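Example 9 (inverse folding). The structure is encoded as follows.
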């Protein structure tokens, strides 16, 4: 999974270039007036978009993150300090060189700085008079460490423990397509499915058996919660709060949509969760009560993506 995150093939570079062009073509967000109110005669308040200032963004292993983050910072008028994982240091150095080489002199090459040594992070985290926001993009451990070491506001992006819940009224052909896409398309991504929840009435049905067979055919290893372990005789999972980032997932049976919601809110990471159902009432309940950044009805978790949402790119969730 680490190699998959670090690899920059031709197709990925092309899609990165396209996403940067999409950001470049967007309306300039800075100095855009959101609201103008005359609160009293000749006393006018204006609410406007403005840059945050200087951002320090620490990310692990994924070099394409550097490109997306730099593009967003330039578009939004923010200064940027970047610290990537040591595994991708050469890729990050080259990408940084490419980006800064095209920044006009009137703006300045130092708008985007690349921090190469891990030792420099501790000193940077003390600069609360200079740096306005820290965004750690990586593991829960990384986010917690950064929060404990600085007075600078921290926007934390941690785990991607995404769920797909198959309700008893689901179209099983649709469910199979969604689950396979969510798990198999790019398992190292933070929006890949890690836990599959299934309504108990679907246990031992032809539709579910077919789905599980397809996952096995693709090479997905399935671990079971207590109920799935007993009924399907699959290896028992150690924890429901687990991000595989590989061709493996957890499966568990739940009593109903409310049980699925409770499970997700307890064990999930508030990233992306999906319900597959033809029952509008169940779908509405799920969409309203799951406390995640993105909640989907009959769509793969892989659709949670800044570019896919028309934003050009993303930083964290």
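The amino acid assigned to each position is listed next.
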């Amino acid at each position: 999974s680490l190699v998959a995150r670090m690899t920059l093939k031709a197709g990925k570079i092309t899609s990165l270039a396209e996403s940067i062009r999409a950001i470049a073509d967007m309306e300039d967000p800075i100095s855009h007036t959101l609201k103008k109110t005359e609160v009293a005669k000749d006393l006018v308040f204006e609410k406007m978009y403005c840059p945050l200032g200087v951002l320090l963004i620490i990310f692990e292993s994924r070099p394409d993150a550097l490109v997306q983050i730099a593009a967003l910072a330039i578009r939004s008028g923010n200064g940027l300090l970047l610290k990537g994982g040591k595994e991708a240091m050469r890729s990050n150095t080259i990408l940084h060189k490419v980006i800064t080489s095209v920044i006009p002199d009137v703006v300045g090459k130092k708008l985007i700085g690349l921090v190469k040594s891990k030792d420099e992070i501790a000193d940077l985290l003390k600069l609360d008079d200079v740096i306005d926001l820290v965004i750690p993009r990586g593991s829960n451990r990384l986010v917690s460490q950064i929060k404990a070491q600085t007075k600078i506001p921290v926007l934390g992006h941690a785990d991607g423990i995404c769920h797909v819940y198959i309700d008893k009224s689901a179209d099983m052909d649709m469910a199979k397509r969604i689950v396979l896409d969510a798990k198999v398309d790019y398992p190292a991504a933070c929006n890949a499915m890690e836990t599959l929840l299934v309504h108990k009435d679907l246990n031992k049905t032809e539709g579910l058996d077919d789905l599980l067979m397809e996952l096995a055919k693709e090479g997905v290893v399935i671990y079971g919660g207590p109920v799935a372990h007993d009924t399907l005789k699959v290896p028992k999972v150690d924890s429901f709060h687990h991000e595989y980032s590989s061709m493996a997932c957890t499966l568990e049976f739940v009593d109903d949509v409310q049980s699925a919601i409770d499970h997700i809110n307890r064990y999930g990471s508030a990233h992306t969760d999906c319900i597959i159902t033809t029952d509008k009432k169940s779908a509405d309940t799920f969409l309203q009560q799951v406390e995640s950044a993105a909640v989907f009805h009959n769509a793969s978790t892989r659709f949670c993506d800044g570019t896919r949402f028309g934003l050009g790119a993303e930083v964290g969730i």
